[in-house]
Write a structure and sequence with these properties.
Structural class: mainly alpha
Strand content: under 5%
Membrane topology: Multi-pass membrane protein
Number of helices: 22
Shape: globular
Helix content: 55-70%
Largest sheet: none
Order of helices and strands: HHHHHHHHHHHHHHHHHHHHHH
Keywords: Membrane, Transmembrane, Transmembrane helix, Transport
Pfam families: MFS_1 (PF07690)
Organism: Endocarpon pusillum
CATH superfamily: MFS general substrate transporter like domains
Number of strands: 0
InterPro entries: MFS (IPR011701), MFS_dom (IPR020846), MFS_trans_sf (IPR036259)
């Protein structure tokens, strides 16, 4: 790989990606893009002679995305399979009183360590490398899931749910952070959505698996709900051991790429996002400086507003569907189609968003679909077919908007230290909504659950408002920076400033 810089004194604010490269999936790797940093706009990136950009990105996709998607698939499965277990007698076996909020409390305690340790987890991930930290976390949340299937009382359930949250704390922000360090902003959404859609697949697969495992009820003296935890947790632990050897690290450390391929991947990301500063440790001052940017706070509320309906559905969908008069096995099977539909729709949204190189409208449209679904449920209609159809709108809307929001926010943060803190903040703060979600659907509100559906609509509207504020903010800063003069910042200064540099352009 080599560069052919043409040093110019004046920079065109709408022209990153200059020159002509080869092998780009869209035909011309160096089409001018107003979102790109001015610092690199005049450099020509040449793909290593033994490959093309398309082949290289496919190689990265096949190594990175399956591993991260499977990892988060198990994380989401292990945190939400309690919703399937409750249908198979967990409540009765552990002495959870009918009509009480004990089950809701057990769901809530998961989020306490999950929220508190998001930022420290991303800092540890950067120090230990992703394949080490994420594999360790995965093994331990699998082990805790097995223990969850062996508890004998309600106190044991609370303890295992707490440690499950602690073990899973690094999964989601760590994976999103890692993906953002491999892909350009204009090509990242379909990768983010494919990864995030593992939650939809986990929901669908969880229902199918639970319906099969439920038939093991009584085997070796264990009820079906115990086997759900034991088998799924064991499979997670085995996969974690394999991922120690398979999970990729950052581009700079990827020994499975040739040296010139690593250099090219790093350079193309610098063209898009500026230098990352991987080699510099994150300090407490870095954390404080990140939170001086009000857009970081807004990004947290964008995600926070969708977490309530997302977890509300994930934790209570089987209970909601059970009120439609199905048996336990039929309930699990009927929970599958809405999740499967959400996967397909989210990938369609991601493809269109990357194609148009735009994010904002692709948050609002799915949010509107989600609101429509909850509005139907809130009416309290007795038409069971219509109520079931509304679940498709809920999952398709909520679970399509979430990956767009996280991708949009994360890839608008420049540099390792700012992105590490910012991504962890968004996920950590957002998951406070999980606590609210666990108390949104109370057993006493069955079968219509009107308070829960009303709460979900309110928080989705909060997310839509936050997305609008964020869009106006980054659009305004792009316009302001287009009129600013580049004062000749050094490479070090640009790296330290990240997306706060005057040469940086946010994606809309």
């Amino acid at each position: 790989m080599r560069f052919s810089p043409e040093h110019k004194k004046e920079h065109n604010s709408s022209s990153p990606d200059s020159g002509s490269g080869r092998g780009h999936p869209d035909g011309d790797f160096h089409n001018r893009d107003p979102l790109r940093s001015h610092e690199y706009e005049d450099e020509q990136l040449i793909v290593p002679s033994h490959t093309t950009e398309r082949r290289l990105m496919t190689k990265i996709d096949l190594r990175l995305l399956p591993c991260l998607s499977i990892l988060y698939f198990f994380a989401f499965l292990d945190r939400t399979n309690i919703a399937n277990a409750i249908i198979f007698g967990l409540r009765e076996d552990l002495g959870i009183a009918p009509g009480s909020t004990q089950y809701n409390t057990a769901l809530t305690i998961f989020f306490v360590p999950y929220i508190l340790f998001e930022i420290p987890s991303n800092i540890i991930l950067k120090k230990l490398k992703p394949h080490v930290w994420l594999s360790i976390c995965m093994f331990f949340f699998g082990l805790v899931t097995v223990c969850q299937g062996l508890v004998r009382n309600y106190s044991g359930l609370l303890a295992t749910r707490f440690f499950l949250g602690l073990a899973e704390t690094g999964m989601f922000p760590g994976c999103f952070y890692l993906i953002g360090m491999w892909y350009k902003r204009a090509e990242a959404q379909k990768r983010y959505s494919f990864f995030f859609s593992s939650t939809s697949l986990a929901g669908a697969f969880g229902g199918l698996l639970a319906s099969a495992i439920g038939k093991m009820d009584g085997l070796r003296g264990y009820h079906g709900w115990r086997w759900i935890f034991i088998l799924e947790g064991t499979l997670t632990c085995v996969t974690a051991i394999l991922f120690w050897f398979l999970l990729p690290d950052f581009p700079e450390d990827a020994r499975w790429l040739k040296e010139d391929e690593r250099a090219y991947v790093k350079a193309r990301l610098e063209v898009d996002q500026g230098k990352s500063g991987l080699d510099r440790a994150i300090t407490f001052k870095d954390v404080v400086n990140v939170f001086k940017d009000y857009k970081i706070i807004v990004g947290g509320f964008m995600y926070f507003g969708l977490i309530v309906p997302a977890y509300g559905y994930a934790y209570f969908a089987p209970s909601i569907i059970r009120t439609y008069g199905y048996s336990p096995i039929q309930t699990q099977l009927h929970s599958v189609p809405p999740w499967a539909t959400a996967f397909g729709f989210s990938m369609l949204v991601a493809w269109a968003s990357d194609r148009m190189r735009h994010r904002f409208l692709f948050t609002l449209v799915p949010i509107a679909i989600g609101i429509a679904g909850f509005a139907i449920l809130l009416t309290g209609t007795r038409n069971l077919d219509l109520r079931y159809a509304a679940l498709f709108l809920v999952t398709s809307g909520v679970y399509s908007a979430m990956p767009v929001i996280v991708c949009w926010f994360n890839l608008n943060i420049g540099g390792h230290h700012r992105r590490s803190v910012g991504s962890a903040w968004q996920i950590g703060f957002g998951n406070i909504g999980g606590i609210i979600a666990t108390f949104a659907f109370l057993q006493r509100d069955a079968p219509l659950y009107k308070p829960g559906f009303a709460i979900c609509i309110g928080f989705i509207c909060l997310s839509a408002a936050s997305c609008t504020v964020y869009f106006i903010s980054v659009w305004g800063q792009n316009k302001q920076r287009a009129k600013s003069i580049d004062m000749g910042l050094t490479d070090y200064e640009r790296t330290e400033l990240g997306d706060e540099a005057v040469t940086y352009r946010y994606q809309l």
